[in-house]
Amino acid sequence: xxxxxxxxxxxxxxxxxxxxxxxxxxxxxxxxxxxxxxxxxxxxxxxxxxxxxxxxxxxxxxxxxxxxxxxxxxxxxxxxxxxxxxxxxxxxxxxxxxxxxxxxxxxxxxxxxxxxxxxxxxxxxxxxxxxxxxxxxxxxxxxxxxxxxxxxx
Length: 153
Prior knowledge:
InterPro entries: HotDog_dom_sf (IPR029069), Thioestr_dom (IPR006683). The protein is α+β, with helices and mostly antiparallel strands. The protein has one domain: Thiol Ester Dehydrase, Chain A (Roll). The protein is about 25% helix and about 35% strand. It has four helices and eight strands; from the N terminus they run αααββββαββββ. Strands 1-2-6-7-8-5 form a six-stranded antiparallel beta sheet, with helices on one face. Strand 6 and strand 7 form a beta hairpin. The radius of gyration is 16 Å and the shape is globular. The model has no long low-confidence stretch (mean pLDDT about 90).
């Protein structure tokens, strides 16, 4: 290895998650996730619940005529929400790896703020299952629901 090529500095995932949880400020954690920054993702904690928010953003539109959010952006937002949920509540030392993700689109996600909440439905030693609900103006009128399985180490 030449002197000009240095190995990438390993990220202290557990330290970042611990700091975010202690300060109840998850913006520092999300700053380390390029996709979360790109879609403008934010998270608020209410007791033992995390509520994720994706603000209305012209870059997230898939159909500007309606205007509606691109389905892939909604799925990415929901997947990222599940990952952060696992990292916070399990105090992981590594980012969980997605094994399977299944989404049901229930209605159009219009050009307004979107929200997601996650529930860890099963957590084993190596795999965790998470259900995710996404809505806009009313929690009872979901725009999408998803199930995800993650490999945790």
